[in-house]
Amino acid sequence: MKFLSLLPFLALCASASPLHAPFRRAFHPVVLWHGLGDSAYSEGMLSLAASLRDAFPGIFVHLVHLADDLAADQRAGFFGDTTQQVNAACEQLKQVKELQGGFDAVGFSQGGQLLRAVVQRCEGVQVRNLVTFGSQHMGISDFPACKPADLLCRLAEGALRGGVYSDYAQTHLVSAQYYRDPTSVAGYARYLATNHFIADINNERERKGEYKERMQALESFVMLMFDKDITVEPKQSSWFASYPIANASSSTLAHDPALEPTPLRQSVIYTEDRLGLQSIDKRGGLLLELCRGVHMQIDEACQRLVFGKYIGTSPPSRLLPGALRRRWARALYATLGLRGAALPTEAHAALLLALAALLQALVVCAAAVRRRMFGAIRLA
């Protein structure tokens, strides 16, 4: 993971924070889940957590971990059962008292779809904004090449030779559990029959209403794709896009340069609203953002799309229940084109006051019109 200019950007956020104000602004807690080959204990992830704490004083940051040391946590990114890992993360988050009032979540690469699985499967966990960098929401149709010195990757690559849809791969090799190649009729059928992770959380088999309901409870779902990404195939999976599902007459393959992924808003997952993504979109809560660079090259411009906007913001108002906040967000987006989750609390207050003033003016105007009408009738 490459955080280019991370410290200068977050230092700028810190300099803008009201550290010397009479009261300190509160920030919504944030949960981070690292990507494949990384660890919650790596220098990069620990530095990111520290930078967020400096930039947003008082913010609580939790790093999801599946083991108690760097090497074991890194290994868990390659080997393990994703269902067990998501369950473990669910229980871990429930035990952190600072997160019991809800939190925002950021997933890096593989960590993004794992965090989404937590949102959908973990009852009782309240995620407000979900942000994913270069994640594989519609799976991958090819595996990235291992670096020569990456022993864990080489071991996983060797194990995959036994078959990506084997019982072993689908319960022990993490990347195999989000492998999805829809360009092969036989391969896609086997994927649906054997995959228990990405096919499940995308509601491709059984439609689970609770998955849709919990996704709809998000205020924002922000997906970031890297324009030069050659690690994720197709890179548009980061935007919930996929190659078309093959049929018996199909002749194209995933590596065919003429084959283009179907954009999210043209896919059945969206048009049939299987996961509530269309519903989120209608209130301005679904964002597809583009970062310049290769996979996980998170430069300052990329960070500005997220931090201080969806991460590092005030907690949601306790005066308005979540359902009412979402209706308000939909009204804002439909009438003014404003994305409610990206607006500061002060802006919401100002809009509500303006709405109240408008309603009051309409009432006064209606009363005046009524008096004139009745006056004219009496004179007649």
Notes on the structure:
With 380 residues, this protein is of the alpha/beta class. Helices cover 41% and strands 10% of the residues. The protein is built from 15 helices and eight strands. The strands form two sheets. A six-stranded parallel beta sheet has the order 3-2-4-5-6-7, with helices on both faces. Strand 2, helix 2 and strand 3 (61-63) form a beta-alpha-beta unit. The chain is globular and about 90 Å long. The N and C termini lie far apart (81 Å). It is an enzyme of class 3 (hydrolase). Belongs to the palmitoyl-protein thioesterase family. Pfam families: Palm_thioest.
The major pleated sheet works out as: 6 strands, parallel
CATH topology (level 3) name: Rossmann fold
Q: Report Rg.
A: 24 Å
Share in helix: 40-55%
Q: Which term fits the overall shape?
A: globular
* Uncertain stretches: 17-22
How many domains make up the coordinates? 1
Can you tell me the CATH class? Answer: Alpha Beta
Mean pLDDT: 87
Could you tell me the number of beta strands? Answer: 8
- State the strand order across the main sheet: 3-2-4-5-6-7
Task: Give the full name of the CATH homologous superfamily.
Answer: Alpha/Beta hydrolase fold, catalytic domain
